[in-house]
Write a structure and sequence with these properties.
By secondary structure, the protein is an alpha/beta fold. Among the domains are: 45 residues; 233 residues, ABC transporter type 1, transmembrane domain (ABC transporter transmembrane region fold, Up-down Bundle). Helix content is 66%, strand content 8%. The protein has 26 helices and ten strands. The chain is elongated. It starts with a helix and ends with a helix. The protein binds adenosine-5'-triphosphate and magnesium ion (MG). Adenosine-5'-triphosphate (ATP) binds next to helix 2 and helix 16.
Amino acid sequence: MRHFRRDTTLGATTQTVRMHGKEKQRRIESIWKWNQQRACNNLFMVTDFQRYKRLLRYAKPYRGRLIAGMVMLALVSLIEPVITIAFSQILDRAFVPEVSAAVASQGAPAPAQATSIPMQSALSQSALFAGLSGWLRTMPIMWFPFLLVLIFALRGAANFLGDLALHWVSSRVVFDLRRITFAHLLRLPVSFFDRNAAAELTSKITFDTQQIGAVTSQALTTLVQDSLKLVVALVMMAAISWKLTLGVFVIAPVVAVVVRLLTRRLRAASIAMQSQMGELSRFTDEGLSNQRSIKIYGAFAQISNAFAERANRVRRTIMKQETANAASAPLMHLVVSVAIAGIVALAIGEGQRGAMTAGDFFIFFTALLSLLPPLKSLSAINSVLQRGLAAAASLFAVIDEPAEVASVANAQPKLSGAVKFQSVTARYAGREADALVDVSFEIAAGRHVAFVGASGSGKSTAIALLAGFYQPQSGEIFVDGELLKRIGLQTLRDNISLVAQDVLLVNDSVATNIAFGSSGGKVDQSRVQWAAQAAGAATFIDTLPGGYAARVGEGGSLLSGGQRQRISIARALYKGAPFVLFDEATSALDSESERLVQDALQRLMVGRTSIVIAHRLSTVERADRIVTLEGGRVVEQGSHAQLLAAGGLYARLHGLQFRSPT
Ligand SMILES: Nc1ncnc2c1ncn2[C@@H]1O[C@H](COP(=O)(O)OP(=O)(O)OP(=O)(O)O)[C@@H](O)[C@H]1O
Ligand SMILES: [Mg+2]
């Protein structure tokens, strides 16, 4: 429908074809840019460390909480040994008679009687833990259950506060990064969005920031808490028996190597599994989409057999994987049990020698087992860090993009809108041809210019240059006799109302859309109604559920094209800027809506300087000057009568339009 209608207008080419080309170009360019960036990063050696330092800058304002949180988490790791030691004393004092007797008779432990079981644990003799053990020993054993609850409560509170503080900081960092990045994105030049797909930018703001948050909280937690846990456990083990600890250090690497070998085999199976699964689904897909040919040519058996073969391959791989899986747990247990047996044998020797109590034995093994979780998370921390740093790199690339130059000191606040293009040539990045070539035209304040020309001839480009969305490669644009670049984008845009080719509305109420951006989001209801009236939008707005409060849907999807355009005109009227740019609003409309939009446009143009791109000649005829573009060049300009008389491109287009029913 759209394309049919477009064929009856001056600009007769399908837009979709161009869009696809653009999209592809954009992708290629973004990949190219990514490679460039990587090359650049390598060149200038932006190291992980530098990136991490830069990331930490975002956490800096919250360093108080950050440090408090880390202290809390450190406390958790330090409380842990108290619990273990308490348990060991319970063992020694309540369940091993000799020791309890010695404690009961006060003072130094009595010498061993018949056996050589020591009265005092190795841990309590070590310099580091003597104080703590001594203090605990003065406590009646019946207090211990309460003590345990108290310690756990303390540990829980510290853990809670620490977690809370770190997550608070990370949520702040994520929030700040999102805010900063989004605000910065809005300030980036239009050309940036030509190069970068919106979906990618969205994922940077939603996903990448999340990853960065994980680095600040998770990585820090792990670094502080788990490394401390590891150290504490090792120190405790060493305090009990350095011989046993040494034994662990000898055996552990062997266990690690065996475990790694086992998991590698598993991983290999799962990779094969993935590719075979892909092949199976590809084949299924192909078979089902070819079902007509299969029916006609009777290829049932052939295809079914081929399918069965692939399905069976998947089954066999699954079995391999499951066999490895099933075998791995018992195998691992076996390996670990051998390792533990070795350590237990050593421990028994120590016990027999009288160098260890039952409590020591208990602590040693508890500490040994407690090494595993922190080891695991510490070995995973690198991947968390790498992911976070990769996300940071991708986000920083956006933050480092230079924003548009916003304002210039000598700006005059009010423009009347006299425009002069002087030999303007413009080319889009990554394009081989110029979009505008040596374009010159002039228009006095309060006058109306119309651009005419086939699709792709550069009409929208001229308007985009005027709005400061792009900079020309050569030539100059003057507004009110002043160079455009010296006026400053802010001033320029304050004076422009733009009704774009593809009207996009924000997913909010009609009134908010009409008052968009003006006076910081405050809506002047009576002005909104006046603008809607003048734009010929009031009638349909009144029929909407909720009237001016009705929501317009995403991009304005709940409204028709013509309604959207009239809202957009109402927005321009509401803004009341002296300078109107109107891009081809009539292309997709039926005659009735077109007339409504035309009328609205006429009212908008009164007393304002305007540049109008219109494919329908009724608008064009009334313009003070018509500029006809072809392939980015101005081929002719003048009034309607002059151009008709000249018998050039305009006359030909005009003739075409009169023949076709519109
Ligand atoms: N953002 C862009 N990036 C790269 N090339 C672009 C971009 N926008 C337009 N072009 C190219 O510049 C040329 C002029 O495009 P322009 O949008 O100005 O045409 P137009 O006259 O407005 O066409 P239409 O009537 O279809 O709106 C075209 O060849 C187009 O492919
Ligand atoms: Mg256009």
